[in-house]
Amino acid sequence: MTRIWFNHWFRTAYSLIELMKQGKENVYIIGSHSCEYSPIRTVCDEWYCEEELPEEEYVEFCLSFCKKHSVDVFVPHRCMTAIARNEERFDAIGVKLLSDDHKKLDLLENKSESYKFFADSKIIAVPDYITVNTAEEFAAAYEKLNGKYGNVCVKFVKDEGGQSFRRVTPKTDMFKGLHHYAEAALSYKMLYAALSTCERFDDLIVMPYLPGCEVSVDCLQTDGGFIMLPRYKGSAHIEKLFFDEEILAMTEEIIKKTDLQYPCDVQFRYLNNKPYLLEVNARMSGGLPMTCAATGVNIPALALQKLLGHGCPMPVFDKCEKIFSNVELPVIVK
Q1: Cα dihedral 60, 261, 19, 161 in deg (nearest 10)
Q2: What are the structural domains of the chain?
Q3: What is this structure's pTM?
């Protein structure tokens, strides 16, 4: 039996763990989170509450945890890149990481560097962007890109889940905004004022706002080729599986250039009917369970087989459009 540890994953990892249990490998799942009552605990065989620790201390905690609980496979989410940098130390105690090489993770975590890396490709469309570190640099970048595209957005180059994403508007009607759900938008004046409070700040990327549909492609490199499962991320959690040749060509080029070996999520967004690369996440996506359900392709189980050296065959599946969604069901945590 393979003992597998998932650390501090988001809620939809509940379904990722279920999918891994449905595979060919005999698995025993250990879960942990800083939230004691995360619903993930209900699908784990063992559960532990984590402390909040600085990155270096957390890596030491992970090594100790793996030894104490006889972990065979570690599926990191929290501090994934720092953990990957210590792959040799985990390997020395018999722990395999379901994660790609830290050099690839370092590149892909930095949106500015990853855009630069992909920019020389004739296939991959990278959006226009400017990286800034001061309020004055932001003002100059905004003037240039807003004049060219009419819509601008910003986000820090190191960001997960779009937490720092903001669409920049000429002005914000705060009263009118009360009649709608809050959106990630700030007026130019408000953002400039916020940035002006720091003499210098971490790399912030300024780029055109891409108003079209967002596409997420769940991927895995197998022994027989690339699994690439694209889905439109629509409103109200309604999504569509589709196989657009342009999206598939760009995704395949991205996987070839990075040589990512384990599950990844490639995101695009449209501007004037053209898809542009948003980002590459070198981990299983939150929407992966829906993609697996729509196609019958069990990416978590296949990735585990690959990591354990038991082969990773290219699955056969119908490449047809499907509309799907998910529903939240109550779970008794304790």
Answers
A1: 70
A2: 2-99 (3.40.50.20), 106-112+212-324 (3.30.470.20), 128-208 (3.30.1490)
A3: 0.93
